[in-house]
Structure formats: structure tokens, C-alpha cells
Amino acid sequence: MARRYDSRTTIFSPEGRLYQIEYAMEAISHAGTVLGVLAKDGVVLAAEKKVTGKLLDLSGVKDGGYGGSGEKIFLLNSNVVAGVAGITADANSLVNYARQAAQRHLFLYNEDIPVELLAQRLCDLKQGYTQYGGLRPFGVSLLYAGYDPNYEFQLYHSDPSGNYSGWKATCIGANNGTAQSLLKQEFKEDMGVEEAIGLVLRVMSKTMDSTTLGSEKLEFSTLTLDPTTKQPKAKIYKPAEIDALLQKHDLGKKDEDTEMRA
Amino acid sequence: MSIMELNGGSVIAMVGKDCVAIASDLRLGNQSLGISSNFEKIFAMTDRVYVGLPGLATDVLTLREQFRYRLNMYTIKEEREIEPETFVHLVSSALYERRFGPYFIEPVVAGMQKQPNGSFKPFIAATDLIGCINFAKDFVVAGTASTKLFGVAEGLWEPDLEPEDLFETIAQTMLNSVDRDAFSGWGAVVHVITKDKVIKRTLKGRMD
Amino acid sequence: MDISFALTGKGYVLIAADTTAARSIVKMKSDEDKIKVLSPHLLMAFSGEPGDTVQFAEYVERNMRLYHIRHNHELRPPAAASWIRRSLADSIRSRKPYAVNLLLGGYEPRERTPHLYWIDYLGTLATVPFGAHGYGAYFALSLLDRYHDPEATLEEGLATLRRCIDEVSKRLVVSPGKYKVKIVDADGVREVEL
User: Is A124 within 8 Å of chain C by CB?
Assistant: First the structure.
């Protein structure tokens, strides 16, 4: 019976459900985990990369990273970074849309787009694809980590239906249930960025399937205020920086030779 | 009344030895009435590329906003900053898009161009209001004092000036030229650009 | 024939505009308010082509309100100024442009700074310590060059404003009789008596 209502995004089933959207959400819950934590002086994002392997050409990622040349974390504007979970091709198109929207706001108002407004812009687009005929919804959930002078640091989540909400810490993608409950236990109200980085890495290492974390499976970024200019500064970590960070938090790959010697 | 001379203002750029300089006046007027003495017409596009936009003031602001939009998209997608020569072509096409209803601006671009071997070469160029590019080896001028700037620069400029000497040359060229132009002046600003830093100096000028 | 002045002081912006509504050589009205309150900390004096002025001022007013309702916070003065400038810059290249000149005064409670913008019908925007539109500009700007002080108290600011108005009354052939003066500061906007 459900089948008759499966293929149309814009048609309710007799039970009042929109199947295509539920399927989109289902697709996202198999995607790589993306995790965000809001601290009092910044926001931290981490994401699990699914496309890996030693034949993958990563030479472009090595020294790039300004806009996030990786798979999951992108700079949307100078004050917003986003982590995406779901169909990467859909995500790329949304990222482009978001960047245009942010620049349009800058053009009109000469100020960086407020974070919630950017989330709204994307959600308006996503909602449209659940209502207007003949189209498939975007199979993408996003976490937005951003800063604006009105509400300072913020973390938002949006899903394929076009819903969005603000969070102190949240997670999308595979194992998001486990991660959410870990976050609920360990989140503290007045955490600083350093502490939040530790929390994110700890939760990430517990929820990801692989035993050891490494830059080939992980993307990482922070959004803080530049101490001199007081302007938001997004940092998307390069592979070497991620490995160094993991070593610092004792979560990186152990160098077996040194262990043997010890 | 010419629309290019409604608000007044002038820009000049010069090449030096491993450096370039770009300078403008600070006046915004309405014909003969002065409105503001801190109306900047030179904008940083990247750390190494600067653009000066003399002409109709509303278009100064509009083009500045439009270039910022296009450049931010370029930077975020290309994951690198634009080179001056590429930027001039962006300017040119933005202006030619309005071929039959132009922006009343004659842009001047100055910057350090990255060479294939990793070194940097001085670059300056200017375009007319519909985007015809003029690549120059020595200096380029634009704005209501352009005729005077040509004359003074022709006399003062010499090849291979060091940054400090180039600063003095462009500053004197600017200050003395605008004294012969009723629509330019009210102070000036100079940027000297080298491969790793930019020095910005604001100059006092005659207030008459 | 409209005349408007504005100046900044320590923690405030003062805006004055004449109250005459004229048609040809006839005064139709002498209590016209030409200063709109756009938001709790934003004032806009408008002048220019009759008809365009009120239409454009109300268009701006309603858009500022809409932004406030949609986003739960008002536009900061620089953002409002940019949006208004954009509207005029788009308008000037349209089939029927608005012929409206503006003085936009705002106060930013967060940073405790006054903002003043001089905007004309072409979409020219200048951040200024003081500004004027209309024939009054030719008399007032030189006075303001001499007497304006960005650190002046409200009393001193009003005295400077009075000088401008008196000079226009003395020297301009078609000088208006009455002015309305509004202030924007940390307490919001209100009308002040000269």
C-alpha cells in the first residue's frame, strides 16, 4: 500500500506521511557522522569521512583547505562553517547555494549574514523540494557552526524536510543516537573551545566504526574569535594538523616502533 | 555638467622596484560643494591586489560591493586568492556587461603578480568605463585630475624606485596634481604594496 | 526647496528638517514631519521630489519593520544604511527613479556609537560627522566645519544646530519658517524643542 505513495515527494500517504522525506532521513542516518559542540568562546565541528582508501588522490586537500576541499566540512561564509551528512552531490549544490546567499546578504547589508538567517535560507529551499511537484528532496542534513554579533556563537541543524533548530551539542549521520547520549552525559554549560575539542574527539572516537582515528577518516574545524580583530575566524584543519591534534589528545595512531622499544 | 565629474576624485598607480603604489584623493563632492573629506576610493581586493575606483560615487560603492561578491566566490571555490592580471579581466568583463548603460567609473588596479617560479612582479593596469584594459609599465592615472596627474607623473617618475622613494614620488604627484583640480583633493591616501606587506599612509592636503 | 541638517555629538545624532510643504510658490502646509522614525534607534530625514519622498520613506519604514519582525532584531545602522543605499542605487538605473535625498542617523546601543550617513538620490553614501541637503547645505556646512565638535554635549550640539538654522533664515531668500528637530541616543528617539 505504501508503495503507491512512495514515488511522489509531494503527496501525503493515507497515514499522513511523506515517504520520500523519511527515506531521505534514513539515507542520512547511514552517512558519515558529523558532530558539533557549542562552547562559550567558539564552536567545534568534526566529521567522519566515508570515502577513503590509499588510491584516493588527496594531493589537493594537503595544502588547500580554505573553503574546505574535503568531503564533509565546508566554509559557507567568513562567519559560518558547515558539516554535511547525506548525499555528497546534493550537499555540494546546497553549499554553493548557501555561499551565494551569504554573499547576497553581504552585498545588500554590508554585514556578514546572521547564522540563523543562513540556515533559514537553506531551509526555505529544502522545504520547497518537499512541496513542489516532480522533484526529489535534498538528501542532506547540515550542522552550521557560526558567529554573528547579535547572538554570538551558534550551532544549528537542518534536515531534508526544511526543519531547523539550534543546539548546544548535536550529531547527525551514522550512530547519531549513541553520540547524542554521550554528548548529553558529558556536555558542560560553560565549556571553553579547548575542552569542547576534547569532548568532540572523545565522542567521535567512540562512535566511529574504526578502532583508531586518523586524518584519512576525520575532518575537523573550529570557529572562534580572532583575539586581535574580534572578527570570527573559521579554521578547517589540514590532515597534518588533525593528526597532531589527535596525538595531543592521545587518540591518534600509536607508533608501533616506539611501543616496541618501550 | 559631466557625470564623470559630478563627485570628483582621482586615482594613480605606479610601478617601482619589486613594489607598486596606488594613491587617491579623499574628496566627495556635489559639483563644487564638498560633502566629505574621507571618501576612500581604493579598496583591498586581496593582500596583494588593490583597486582604485574614481568616478561617480554611487558606482564606486556599487562596484566595490560587486567585486567583493565575485571575489569572495572566486576565493572560496578556487581555494586561492586572485592574481592582479586575472582580477583586471574580472573588472573588465563586469564593466563591459553594462556596455550600453555603463558604470561611470574608470578603475585602476595595482598589485604584485605571482610568477611561475614563485617570485612576484609588479603589475598595474587601468580600464575605461566600459572595460577596455590598458596595461602599463610605468604608471596609470584616472579621474578628474587625470590630465594633471599625467603631466606631473611624467616629470617625477623614474624606473626601479625603492618602496620609500616610490611612496614619495606618488605622494608628491598626487598632492601637486590635485591642487590644480577643483574636484579632487581634500587629503590623499597612498598604499605601497610589496610581496609581503602593504603600507598605507594618509596624507593631509590643502582644504580649499 | 526642502532643507535638512544633521550632526553627531557625544553619544547622539541630531537631525533637523524644515516643516514646509510647498507646491510651486505656495505654502500648502507648515507642520509637515519630514523625519521618519525607522526603528527604535534610527531616524531618517528625507527630501526631494514631492510624492517620491513620502512613498520611498514609507517603503523603507515598512521594510525595516519587516526585517525586525522576521528576524527578531532590528538592522544595525550601517546595515540599514547599506540596504537603503542599495534601494536608491537600483532605483536610479530603473525606468522611474526615486528622487529622494536622505540623512540617516542611528545609534548602536551595543557599541554605544552614533552613526550618521549622507545619502543622495543616486545612491551615493558617505559616512559623515555632519551633513546637510538642499540650499541650506551651502550655508550650514561651512558653519559646521567651524563649530562642529564630535564630543559636544546635547546643549552644545543644539546651539550649533541653532546657528545653522539662524544663518539660513538670515541669508536664504526662500528660507523656511519652522523646523522639526529629532534626536537619537541611548534612550531611543524623541523630538526636541529648539
Answer: no
Q: Do B79 and A65 touch (CB under 8 A)?
A: yes
Q: How far is CA B118 from CA A60, B112, B135, B160, B162, in A?
A: 19, 12, 22, 20, 21
Say which residues have a Cβ less than 8 Å from residue B28's Cβ, sequence separation at least 6. B7, B8, B9, B34, B35, B36, B37, B39, B57, C124, C126
Cβ pair C75:A109 closer than 8 A: yes
CATH for A21-50+66-249 (2.60.40.420, 3.60.20.10, 3.40.50.1820, 3.40.190.10): 3.60.20.10
**pLDDT class for A66, splitting at 50, 70, 90?**
low
Reported ipTM: 0.95
- Residues of A in Cβ contact (< 8 Å) with B79: 64-67, 69
- Given the C-alpha cell 528660507, which residue does it identify? C175
CA separation for the pair B171, B173 (Å, rounded): 5
Q: Which residues of A touch C86 (CB under 8 A)?
A: 107-108
Q: According to the model, what pLDDT value does residue A11 have?
A: 80
Rounded CA separation C111/A65 (Å): 34
- Third-level CATH fold of C4-192: Glutamine Phosphoribosylpyrophosphate, subunit 1, domain 1 (3.60.20)
- Which grid cell sits at A207? 562512535
Domain range annotation of chain A:
21-50+66-249
Q: At what angle do helices C77-92 and C52-71 cross, to 10 degrees?
A: 130
Give residue A69's pLDDT: 60
Nearest CA in chain A to C82: A109
What average pLDDT score do residues B75-88 get? 95
DSSP H helices in C52-147: 52-71, 77-92, 136-147
Spatial contact of C64 and C36, defined as CB atoms under 8 Å apart:
no
Rounded Cα distance between B29 and B187, Å, is: 13
Using CA atoms, how far residue B5 sits from A115, B183, C46, in Å, is 42, 7, 25
Amino acid making up residue B11: V
What does the mean pLDDT of chain B come to?
A: 97
Topology of B3-203 in CATH? Glutamine Phosphoribosylpyrophosphate, subunit 1, domain 1 (3.60.20)
For the record, the C-alpha cell of B126 comes out as 587601468
Whether C83 and chain A come into contact, CB under 8 Å, resolves to yes
Q: Which residues of B touch C122 (CB under 8 A)?
A: 56-58
Contact B72 A106 (CB under 8 A): yes
What is the dihedral angle through the alpha carbons of B168, B174, B178, B183, rounded to the nearest 10 degrees? -140
Contacts by residues A20-25 (CB-CB < 8 Å, ≥ 24 positions apart): A20/A130, A20/A136, A20/A137, A21/A130, A21/A137, A21/A160, A21/A161, A24/A86, A24/A136, A24/A137, A24/A138, A24/A139, A24/A160, A25/A141, A25/A159, A25/A160, A25/A161
Return d(Cα A171, Cα A175) in angstroms, integer: 9
